[in-house]
Design a protein that fits this description.
The chain has twelve helices and no strands. The protein has 326 residues and is an all-alpha fold. Helix 4 crosses helix 8 and helix 9 packs antiparallel against helix 10. Keywords: Membrane, Transmembrane, Transmembrane helix.
């Protein structure tokens, strides 16, 4: 795929950022957090654990499927970035032009937001944002109206995409491609998971989430990530190999975790979820911090994802055990 997308991909964020007040650019630097991988997976995990029948008829199936959709999206990004291997805009490599009026504590944060390494096409934030918020809008089908959910999802995804251009870490074509890729992944992964609304002739009456099975989507994400790893190795891109490895582990961990879940578990209690989020979050951070050791990263990521997906079943087993003892 190398050479199909030019390194000079049209207008970046330089002209747009220069024309905007600094405070607006800073606001967009914050908006981009809405599609940071850590934020999305935390959001998806919280929804998966806590959602009840006010959000979806089968909230555990809906939540796990949303996680699987986003895992597929990142796998697709890993393949594309390793294959196209084109750089980000010059502004992404620094030095950062930090507003002088920002407090010292925020200067480091801002610099970290507007500097980014790795390849630029397509935008992972735009893809992940479109996939995550699109999947949430379709999976939690009892929240608001369908039009309101979709409108909110589109608004957030577009805002994130614009933010990536404003802070000069992507060209416009990168985020447009990301939005389109994310939308395509939502449709494909939900259809693969058995969503009757996305299958020709399917019956969408009743509870569409009751038919969802995230396992095929998790497996697909792992398989696509294997392809991404191969492309990255062939191209000599070690950073992309790590990203692909995390995708493999996430897909495998999600599929294994779902094997332990019936799909009809009640919401997880806060007392169980808070320590679980702390432990899985620590494992996730450790997976990235120890990225120089691929085996450690794979194991940490797999364990974290298995724990996230299997937690509702583990919590119910623990509760049943306590009731039996009493």
């Amino acid at each position: 795929m190398t050479g199909l997308v030019s390194a000079e991909r049209g207008i970046g964020g330089i002209a747009l950022a220069d024309a905007l007040p600094e405070v607006v650019v800073v606001v967009f630097a914050a908006v981009t957090h809405l599609a940071d991988p850590w934020f999305l997976f935390a959001l998806l995990a919280v929804g998966y654990w806590f959602a009840d029948d006010r959000l979806a008829g089968s909230p555990r199936r809906a939540g796990a499927t949303a996680i699987a959709v986003v895992t597929c999206a990142y796998a697709a990004v890993a393949v594309a970035k390793a294959g196209f291997a084109v750089p980000r805009p010059p502004g992404a490599t620094g030095p950062a032009d930090v507003p002088t009026w920002l407090p010292v504590l925020l200067s480091g944060w801002y610099e970290a937001q507007v500097l980014s390494d790795g390849f630029g096409f397509p935008s992972g934030h735009a893809t992940g944002g479109a996939a995550a918020y699109g999947a949430l809008a379709l999976a939690y089908d009892r929240l608001w109206t369908g039009r309101t959910r979709v409108a909110a999802a589109v608004a957030i995804a577009v805002a994130v995409a614009v933010s990536r251009v404003v802070i000069e870490v992507h060209y416009a074509v990168d985020v447009i491609a990301g939005l389109l890729l994310g939308a395509a992944v939502v449709a494909g992964a939900l259809a693969l998971a058995g969503d009757p609304r996305l299958r020709p002739g399917g019956d969408s009456s009743g509870d569409p989430t009751a038919a969802l099975d995230p396992t095929p989507a998790f497996v697909l994400a792992a398989a696509v990530s294997v392809v991404a790893a191969g492309v990255a190795v062939a191209g000599g891109h070690p950073g992309e190999v790590i990203e692909a490895g995390i995708g493999i582990a996430t897909g495998v961990g999600g599929a294994v975790g779902w094997l332990l879940v019936d799909g009809d578990e009640p919401p997880v209690s806060v007392g169980v979820a808070v320590p679980a989020l702390a432990v899985t979050g620590a494992l996730w951070v450790g997976a990235y911090a120890l990225a120089d050791s691929l085996p450690v990263t794979l194991v940490a990521t797999t364990v974290a994802v298995v724990a996230v997906v299997a937690l509702p079943a583990a919590a119910r087993e623990g509760l049943d055990g306590i009731r039996a003892a009493v």
